[in-house]
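Problem 12. The chain below contains 323 residues. Write out its predicted structure in token notation.
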Amino acid sequence: MGFPHVRARRLRQSDAWRRLVRETRLSRDDFIYPLFVVPGRRVRHPVESMPGVAQLSVDECVAEAKAVADLGVPAVILFSAPSEKDARASAFLDPGGLVPQAVKAIKAAVPQLLVWTDVCLCSATDHGHCGHVLPSGAIDNDSSVETLAQVALVYARAGADAVAPSDMMDGRVLAIRQLLDRNGHATTPIVSYAAKYASAFYGPFREAADSAPAFGDRRSYQMDPANAREAVREVIADVEEGADLVMVKPAGPYLDVIRRVRESVDVPVVAYQVSGEFSLIKAASSRGWIDERAAAFETLTGIKRAGADLIITYFAPDMCRWL
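Solution.
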């Protein structure tokens, strides 16, 4: 039985009907907001390529955390851009470093806000790579994993609600889990950037985190954008190593990967709507080419429809206002 008996438009004829039968719904509880911590006090330095986003000193991070928590954002994820960089990312091993300072200050001021910490080496190394560099120029996996685990422990000791390794070194989830467990942090969750692609959409972030590689690229450790089956293998491996949540990054160009991941594991799936995705919408809307609010809703709905349980997005505060 088809038309005219079947008329799909009957359930689209009013806003009330469309809301009643809507299959995918966004909620304030879906969003995690990135914050970029830099040295100093009263620093709020706008990121030129990311309108509305700024590099923040610890005191300004606290103010921003309070503001977004008041809007209903349930969690933030911290990145930092220390002024001192070296080959070993020593700044990230300092218990008095920027991220530990920010974690402690935010948790003291806004205890109900979950604070995740990105675990990587790139923005604290003088070469800008996510692991240790050998004389040949290759990235040494195993020594990098040892340092990453130590960084995660520093953040857990500072009170982070979760640690989120984003480096894509093999075995880092297991190393982090074992080190945290041995040191009294068995309850600290790991949010693994399990399927992180070598993407062209990270450019604005590298300005915000001061993390561009000084030579070469990250294709020897981040994933080939052409591969989807490999993402499932990476995700399953990280879950077996102890990941509590797994992430797909970027989100928009990889909706098929989000769906495959959602169907392959039972842990929560996070998707990161990255800086380039955000900045494209901002740039087009600033010229009047698209409606920013409508584009944000549509892209984020698509990410959740694909299977993401949680979404890291720079639109988080705006979405909480609009919702």
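Discussion. The mean pLDDT is 97. Students who got a different answer should revisit the alignment rule from Section 12.3.
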